[in-house]
Amino acid sequence: MLLSEKGRFAPPPTLKGAAQRVSETIASWKDVHARAHWLLGDEDTIDGADFYLGQEEIGHIHLYSEAHVMLPRAVADALIKAKLASTFPSGRDVVAFAIKSKSDIDHALWLFELSYSKHRGMSDKQLLQQVAERARDSKRETESRA
User: For position 38, which CATH number holds?
Assistant: First the structure.
């Protein structure tokens, strides 16, 4: 959804734990506009924090600490296939990731960086290369723990 369609402005809320750290970091990125994420259809109930680059939403984090990150469909599909993000039930160009603890901060920021980079001009091919590299690294880590 475009920023101009998002409704009235309110500052982003304070989120819980690791999600707040992610929110603060994204809000500090060049040209990112952070604001309240409203409960769908209700401009009186805040449901998290939205992040925009210009008019384009890069993603949001709900009060229950789940991030929804906007990405091209091919990139979202690659992330889900590699188990680096979860399916978002209402759209194939969005991925979900639960920010449960401090150990999730880096991965959540990486997902948002993919969307940020896309909106700053990075090609889908370059994004898919980053996903492939992350998937290989994740697989190596898993194998080394076994």
Answer: 3.90.1150
Residue pLDDT, tens place only, 26-50:
999 999 999 999 888 788 889 999 9
Question: Are the beta carbons of 70 and 112 closer than 8 angstroms?
Answer: no
CA gap 76, 74 in Å, rounded: 6
Residue 103's nearest CA partner among 37, 17, 6 is 17
* CB-CB neighbours of 14 under 10 Å: 11
Q: What is the DSSP string of the chain?
A: --GGGS-S--PPPP--HHHHHHHHHHHTSTTEEEEEEEETTEEEEEEEEEEEETTEEEEEEETTSEEEEE--HHHHHHHHHTTSSEE-TT-TTEEEEE--SGGGHHHHHHHHHHHHHHHTT--HHHHHHHHHHHHHHHHHHHHHH-
Residue 127: CA atoms inside 13 Å, Cβ hemisphere, count? 25
Give the pLDDT band of residue 102 (cuts 50, 70, 90): very high
Residues 16, 11, 7: CA angle, nearest 5 degrees: 115
